[in-house]
Amino acid sequence: MLALHVTGFATDNPLPERTRTKSPGRTIRRTTGEFAVPAEQREGHADIVAASAGDRGAFERLYRTYGQRIYALCLRMTADQNTAEELVQDVFVRAWQKLDSFRGDAAFGTWLHRVAVNIVLSHRKRDGIRNSRTTSDDEAVDAAPARSVHVGERVDLEAAIAALPKGARRIFVLHDVEGYTHEEIGELLGITSGGSKAQLHRARMLLREALSK
Amino acid sequence: MTDHNQHDGRNDGRNDGAGSNLDCEVASAQLSEYLDGQLSPSDAAAYTRHLASCAVCATLERELRAVVSSARSLPAPPMPRDLWPEIAARLETPVLSLPLASQATADTPAASRGQRFARSWQFMAAAAALLVTLSAGVTWSIAQRSTDSATDPALVATNDTEGDAANGNATNGNASASTADLGAARRIDAQAVPPVATTEGTGAANPTFAASSSTGGIAGAAPATAAPTPGTRAAGRSTDVATAQLASNIDAASLETIYGREIAMLRTVAESQLGLLDSSTVNVVRRNLDIIDEAIRECRTALADDPNSGFLLDQLGRAYDRKVDLLRRLALL
Fold first, then answer.
1. How far is CA B52 from CA A165, B32, B68, B289, B292, in A?
2. Residues of B in contact with A95 (CB under 8 A)
3. In 3-state terms, what secondary structure has residue A29?
4. Of A78, A89, A145, B188, most Cβ neighbours within 10 A?
5. Is residue B93 within 8 Å of B228, Cβ to Cβ?
6. Centroid of chain to Cα B285
7. How near does any CA of chain B get to the CA of A177, in Å?
8. Closest C-alpha to B94, from B193, B182, B170
9. pTM over 0.80
10. CA distances from B136 to A183, B139, B143 (A)
11. What three-state secondary structure class fits B176?
12. Partners of residue A21 on adjacent β-strands
């Protein structure tokens, strides 16, 4: 039996109800990329409008509201604190530049999340080119974990995610943590939804294995 | 712990007595799809029957379900420090303050932002071309200097700046040039565009050379987030004017002239870098360059038939952008 080292790691609870049926035989995530922003913080419309008009104070409030979630995304996708901090800055600078393109037809958090995902993935591509090393998704699955997990080490889920191979980690984070569908992931990463499913399953199995040690 | 591998295939092909012919290996491979509700109703039913009859697979299913459930409820890790001061510093530098000369008196934030984003394709193409010109010059000089001095903190800062530029921000025509990139460009001063610089240009014959040489050992090596000084503001003004004037005259020939010089310069550095890469990577790079060159050729051919097409001119600019971007990345490897 798994040794549970994660708070709230209840093995017999059903999965959260996060899907809805869009059409027969197909389910999609309802909460793709949305943030669970507390209700009292959701009233940011005035800040969005003000920030769009150049109000940096308003934009700072948006950063205070969404910064932590953006940081979480960046950290989990890169498994590197320094890189994550740099990316958070990039995300908010880019958001500031592109606020005018936010038309309000989606939640601001969702829009910002998309900006963040694009920047993180763009960074990864750039990083890969700089290292003269391109890794296909299949190769990424078989690659050695980014950080070794020793037998007997008590690891929590965050550490286990960080230890996943890069390709598997980003898909796990996008799908299981952030709620993207395989189709969306396929579009973002330029892979098939089947490839995304395979990587996700691999990631889950590796996590299960890591958590059971 | 459940070691599912130890029993993989144990139920191969056998009916488990509950109407399921699912073997454990297949069950393991399909587990995520089962958990995500992506199996067809009949397959899901067969899977459920298999779980009822196979304790090992049932345990595996519980464990994987727990992983998924936990991932979905992970709390966001706290930020180790407040990043706002650094973000705010980067916002201090105007994003792409390139108003037309006749509109340069914008004063309210709303007005300036509105104008900033209300550019025509011509204006955007000109801005992109100018930024490429300036940043490519810096890239060239960085690459050149890197062969002389291996470690220079200031160079590292500039290198990062160019890394941002290499991301295509400055050249994708959507006004998303990184502030750091523009900061570096502005520090180069108006000499970079002698034909149109009206306030501080000194008439250097070759914009590219001026851009790289005026760095005086990379003038742009100052911290990219530094607040603009009066000097940089003045340089920015002349750059604005330069860009505005360039905008009114941009055409295919101008684009080719501007990009051509930078591409030639970057290619020299990039070619030397290619010698350091493995052959398969070199092949990929060369193939990509061929593809981009083909796109450029097609755009030029089409423009010959329709020289006033804004769309074609934009496409030509984008193709050049990609080429510069690729060469710059190579140069900075």
1. 33, 17, 21, 57, 57
2. none
3. strand
4. B188
5. yes
6. 17
7. 5
8. B182
9. no
10. 37, 5, 10
11. coil
12. A27
- Which pair of structure tokens corresponds to residue B193? 């565009």
Chain B positions touching A67 (Cβ under 8 A) are 79, 83-84
Amino acid at A187: E
Identify the residue among A80, A132, A156 best suited for mutation to test binding to B, counting B beta carbons within 10 A and taking the highest.
A132
Phi and psi for A19 in degrees, rounded to 5?
-120, 155
Structure letter (DSSP) for residue A40: G
Residues of chain A contacting residue B117, judged by C-beta atoms under 8 Å apart: 100
Q: What contacts B149, CB < 8 A, 6 or more positions away?
A: B155
Instruction: Walk along chain A (213 residues) and give the pLDDT tens digit of each residue.
Output: 343 333 333 333 333 333 333 333 333 343 455 555 554 445 578 888 888 888 999 999 999 999 999 999 999 999 999 999 999 999 999 999 888 888 776 788 889 999 999 999 887 665 554 454 444 444 444 444 444 433 333 458 999 999 999 999 999 999 999 999 999 999 988 899 999 999 999 999 999 998 887
b or e along A185-194 (b: 16 or more beta carbons within 10 Å of the residue's beta carbon)?
bbebbebeee
**Among B77, B83, B164, beta carbon nearest to A72:** B77
Of B50-54, B66-70, B126-130, minimum mean pLDDT range: B126-130
Nearest to A111, CA basis, from A183, A20, A37: A37
Provide, as residue numbers in chain B, all residues whose Cβ is less than 8 Å from the Cβ of A56: 88, 91
Residues facing residue A19 across a β-bridge: A29
How far B203 CA sits from the closest chain A CA (Å)? 33
User: Do you know the residue count of chain B?
Assistant: 333
Question: Given B74, B84, B110, which is nearest A54 (Cβ)?
Answer: B110
Cβ proximity of B81 and A67 under 8 Å? no
**Substitution target from B4, B43, B87, B280 for chain A, most A beta carbons within 10 A:** B87
d(CA A102, CA A116): 14
Comparing CB atoms, the residue among B72, B79, B87 nearest residue A93 is B87
Amino acid at B300: R
Q: Which two tokens stand for residue B29?
A: 């491979």
User: DSSP letter string over A11-28?
Assistant: TTSPPP--EEEEETTEEE
CB within 8 Å: A132 and B333: yes
Q: Residue with structure tokens 């523009």?
A: B182
Q: Which of B131, B127, B130, B98 is nearest to B115 (CA)?
A: B98
CA pair distance B92, A59, nearest whole angstrom = 13
d(CA A165, CA A140): 6
CB pairs under 8 A between A and B: 162
Q: Least CB-CB distance to B176: which of A64, A98, A126?
A: A98
